[in-house]
Amino acid sequence: RTMLDANAQHHREKNAEQTLKRQQARVIDGYWPFPPPIGFRHEKRQGQGKVMIPHEPLASIIREALEGYASGRFQTQAEVARFLETQPDFPKNRYGVVTVEAANRILNRILYAGHVQAEMWNIPLRKGKHEGLVTLETYERIQERLHGKPKIAARTDIDEDFPLRGFVTCADCGHSMTACWAKSKTGAKHPYYYCYARGCESKGKSVRRADIEGQFETLLADMKPSRTMFALVQEMFKQAWGIQSENEETHRQSLASAVRDAEKKIESLLDRIVEANTASVIAAYEKRIDTLEREKLVLREQLENTARNKRPFGEMFKLTMQFLANPQKIWKTGQLEHKRTVLKLAFAGRLAAYHRKSGFQTPKISSVFRMIEGINPMNLQMAEGMRFELTKRLLVYTLSRRAPSTARPPLRITCGS
After folding, report:
1. What is the pLDDT of residues 290-315, one digit of tens each?
2. What whole-number distance in Å separates Cα of residue 202 and Cα of residue 168?
3. What does the pLDDT look like over 143-164, one tens digit per residue?
4. What is the DSSP string of 264-328?
C-alpha cells in the first residue's frame, strides 16, 4: 500500500508540473489559460485551443467604463462603480451593489487591453491572442490616473432629483449649494436648493428647484449658436479634420522611427547586461528594458491604429456636433450621467454663483463655447478710421534696383486713414 501511495503521489506531482509548464507556455504564446475575467468568455478554436472572446453585453459595458475613466468622464473609481451598478446586465454582489474594489480590479486588468502578463512566473507583458476591449494607450492613461493625484470621492447624495447639486455656488459666501426635499404641513414634498454654510446671509433660505433649474436651462439656451454660426464651426472642424488626415503619414513615420529607436535602446541595454557584473546594475538594466518594452508595445499599437482607415467626419463628430448645436436638448432629454457631462463640457469648473434674488451671475463657459462666442459675426467690428503709424522701420526695395547699402538710413512709412 505504501508503494501504491508513493506511486500515486509521484503521478500527481508530475501531472501538476506538466500542467504548470503548459500554462506557462500558453501565457508565453499570448493565451490566457485561467478563468476569463468579466466581459470575456472562452471559445475553442481549431489549432489554438481555448481563446478569450468578448462576451456581450458585458464587454460593451466594461469598454464604456474603461474609456469613460480614461477620458475623465468618470472622475473617480466610485463613479465607475456607480455606472456599473446602474447596468442591469452587470453582475452584482449578494447585496445588489458593485463595490469600488470590483471597479478597481477592472481598471487594473491588462487583459482588457488585449495583452497578457504573468508576474508570478516572470513573464513580461506581451501581445495577447485575444481581442482587447480598449487599446494599450487607454490602459496606460487609466494607470496614470489611478496612480496620480487622488480625486475627491464622488458624492453619494447626487441623484436625478438634484442634478445641479455640487455645481452651483452661493453668491453670498461662495460655498456649494445643497438640496433636499422639504415636507409641508399637508405632507406634500417640495424640492429646494439652499446654502448651509455658517455665517452666510442666505443660510437656510431655500430656492425652488423649478426656479434655479429653469434659469439654468435659459443659460444653456443662450449658448446655442445660430445656424450660420454652427455651419461655420462645423466647416472649421472639417478643415481641421482634413489637415489632421494629411498629417497622418508624417505621424506614422514618426511612430515607426520611435519603434526603431526603442529597439536599438533595448539591444544596447542587453549588451550592457552581458558585460555587467553587479546585481544592482543588472536589475536596473532589466527594469529599464521592461519600461522600453511597454513603450514599444504602445507605439506599435498606435502605428497599427493609424494604419487603419478612419471613419468619415460625420460619423466621428456626430455626437459632438449635436452637443454644440443644442446643449439644452441633451440636458432636458438625457439621464443624470448625460446632465453631468453637459455641466463638465459646457462650463469651466463650477457654475457661476447663484443669488436667490438676482439669479445666476455671469457663468464661466468652457473654451469651446468661448471660441464660438469669439468668432461670432455679431462681435466683429470694423476698425475705426483714425490715423495710425507703423512703429517698425522697414526697408523698401524695388525690382529694378539693387538693395540700398547698410549705411543708408531706412525709410519710415506713415499710413493714414
Report:
1. 888 878 887 777 777 665 546 666 66
2. 14
3. 888 887 555 445 555 567 788 8
4. HHHHHHHHHHHH---HHHHHHHHHHHHHHHHHHHHHHHHHHHHHSPPPPHHHHSHHHHHHHH-HH
